[in-house]
Amino acid sequence: MPLYEMFCIAVHNQRSPTNLRQLVDTLTNTVHRSGGVVRKIQNLGLGLTLPERMRAHQQYHTHGDHFALHFDVSPLVLRTINETMRRDPMVIRWTILKKGEKVADLGILNETSIRSVPVPRDELVYQAPFRYRRS
């Protein structure tokens, strides 16, 4: 199965991050149910100011939560993930990049997946902020 990396900007909820957790859980469950493997989940920043006002689902957004998801999945399931992202009102923007055909192609050997190692939610959050650079 090919290895993919997805970057996503989700709607920022100031009161509670539960909607973001539900979005990530939905994506990871879709990958796991199809026989895929989630390699890494990265939080790239919560409540960051977007570089410009973005419109999604008939609403304008100025702040967003950024995260990255690395996963192995078949190309057919990738369509399901794209449909999920397109229909979810929590998603502002997303992009999926193909990293390689096999994990061995990337030089990553003996890497354990999140599915095989129980990790508390607090440790899944990466605290370094993601910043846009204007050219």
Automatic annotation (TrEMBL):
SUPFAM superfamilies tied to this protein: Ribosomal protein S6
Keyword rRNA-binding: no
UniProt keyword terms in alphabetical order: Ribonucleoprotein, Ribosomal protein
Superkingdom of source: Eukaryota
Any one of the GO CC terms: mitochondrial small ribosomal subunit
Matching InterPro entries: Ribosomal_bS6, Ribosomal_bS6_sf, Transl_elong_EF1B/ribsomal_bS6
Gene3D superfamilies: 3.30.70.60
GO biological process, one term: translation
Family the UniProt entry places it in: Belongs to the bacterial ribosomal protein bS6 family.
Official protein name in the record: Ribosomal protein S6
Originating species: Tremella mesenterica (Jelly fungus)
Higher taxonomy: Eukaryota, Fungi, Dikarya, Basidiomycota, Agaricomycotina
